[in-house]
Write a structure and sequence with these properties.
By secondary structure, the chain is of the alpha+beta class. About 30% of the residues lie in helices and about 25% in strands. It folds into 2 domains: about 5-20 and about 230-430, UDP-n-acetylglucosamine1-carboxyvinyl-transferase, Chain (Alpha-beta prism); about 20-230, UDP-n-acetylglucosamine1-carboxyvinyl-transferase, Chain, CATH 3.65.10. It binds ligand EPZ.
């Protein structure tokens, strides 16, 4: 089992290139099968979740050709089954995206219920409500979402909560429905906009993505396109906070600064210097961080996917900070691990009360999920001494070459298999 061996103490300094957005890539890869023509996708992150989805799509006849590490051509012209049997797809949350894509294109989809990181209740009732509103029958049976429709007819859908997945899924199905669909209270995340832009480049008629009302005029069919996925806002934010935690100086390249506004605002508030350029951000941190209050909210609010990263930073700040996660109720599992490293944090319901400490100390810890895992790595990079972090496969779900990128910035981090390799790492870095 792979683990990260980390020796803390080095500030992160240098330039890091951000990859394509995982949470945009996943629905775009699924949406690419909605045309019989070939789609070329560029700036795709090479991470576990995108690879699992691509593998699952090949099992139903989608032709996938990897033209480079970050580019792929996808052709959904020879799909022979609307049922995905692949076992691995159950492990990822984005398993639900082929439902919207297949339902829209073929009026039928049978796909395993999604898994993903255990960060709280991850309902799909809004996806189901949207599909039903379009005229589909939806059943949950034997671990599958089964849906079919004679016709999909555009309608007015009011989402009961702001859901990224439901907005995108219903938008995909509605793209090939008859007439106009209006989704109210839709999610506004940059990846929702990216999927809409991708579908529009294939001939869809989607307006309003990025606002809370999306209007989709159904079209008969989609055509091929070439599309470049947006940069990953959360990967960028993670490195920006890694600079804050390690008192570093980082130039985070290939980003869209607008997508990072809530993250930048908090970094400035807690005492970092942030400089914005056209497509990069520089974050410098030289002082003890100031405390603050953070509440995660749908975009443009502070993202839940950045909650553990800011909490790790505030754990080293002066005084008391309060972090509330309003999106997922189980996203504080990393607190026990951070406590082993010396943090002083109390969790009450969906709120963490953080009493800043002077330093973290290295320990044997475990990544409970993707973003928490990445945040714990940043804690270990700032900590005194050695950390051995288990369950790094969670981090590999969403960060490409995470430890290699950190190493290039001066971090002492290595992927190790066992205690013997950890001892070797200690000798090398001691
Ligand atoms: C997406 O998950 C992301 N995953 C998550 O990123 C991210 O944390 C989340 O959006 C919020 O931004 C992917 O894009 C693959 P939601 P998703 O539907 O779509 C409730 C990461 O680390 N809800 O916006 O599953 C739900 O319980 C991952 O990259 C319903 O009640 O999130 C949650 O409280 C983790 N019914 C809230 O809405 C529904 O039908 C937001 O969920 C759907 C959601």
């Amino acid at each position: 089992m792979k683990q990260y061996a980390i020796k803390g103490g080095n500030p992160l300094v240098g330039e890091v290139e951000i990859g394509g957005s995982k949470n945009a890539a996943l629905p775009i890869l699924a949406a690419a099968i909605m045309t019989d023509e070939t789609v070329y996708i560029d700036n795709m992150p090479d991470v576990f979740d995108t690879n699992v989805l691509l593998d699952a799509l090949t099992t139903i006849g989608v032709s996938i050709v990897r033209t480079g590490r970050h580019s792929v051509t996808i052709n959904g012209g020879n799909i022979f089954s609307k049922q995905i049997e692949d076992d691995n797809i159950k492990k990822i949350r984005a398993a639900y995206y082929p439902v919207g894509a297949l339902l829209g294109k073929y009026r039928e989809a049978i796909v395993p219920l999604p898994g993903g990181c255990d960060i709280g209740c991850r309902a799909i009732d809004q996806h189901i409500k949207g599909f039903r509103a379009l005229g589909a029958e939806v059943l949950i049976e034997h671990g599958y979402i089964k849906t079919r429709a004679d016709r999909l007819v555009g309608t007015h859908i009011y989402m009961d909560c702001v859901s990224v997945g439901a907005t995108i899924n219903v938008m995909m199905a509605a793209t090939l429905a008859e007439g106009t669909t209006i989704i109210e209270n839709s999610a506004k995340e940059p990846h929702v906009v990216d999927v809409a832009n991708f579908l529009n480049s294939c001939g869809a008629h989607i307006k309003g993505a990025g606002t809370d009302v999306i209007r989709i005029k159904g079209v008969k069919k989609l055509h091929g396109a070439e599309y470049t996925i947006i940069p990953d806002q959360i990967e960028a934010g993670t490195f920006m906070f890694a600079a804050a935690v390690t008192k570093g100086d980082l130039m985070v390249k290939n980003v869209i600064p607008k997508h990072l506004e809530s993250i930048t605002a908090k970094l400035i508030e807690i005492g970092c210097e942030v400089e914005e350029f056209d497509d990069c951000m520089r974050v410098v941190c030289s002082k003890t961080l100031k405390p603050t209050h953070v509440k995660t909210l749908p975009y443009p609010g502070f993202p839940t996917d950045m909650q553990p990263q800011i909490a790790v930073a505030l754990g080293l700040g002066e005084g008391i900070s309060i972090v509330t996660d309003t999106i997922f109720e189980n996203r504080f599992k990393y607190v026990d691990e951070l406590t082993r490293m010396g943090a002083n944090i109390r969790v009450e319901g969906s709120t963490a009360i953080i009493n800043g400490v002077k330093k973290y100390t290295g320990a044997g810890i475990s990544a409970p999920d993707l973003r928490a895992g990445a945040a714990l790595v940043t804690a270990a990079l700032a900590a005194e001494g050695y950390t051995l972090l288990d369950e790094v496969q969670y981090i590999q779900r969403g960060y490409e070459d995470f430890h290699l990128k950190l190493k290039a910035l001066g971090a002492q981090i290595e992927l190790v298999e066992d205690q013997r390799e950890f001892q070797k790492f200690k000798l090398k870095t001691g």
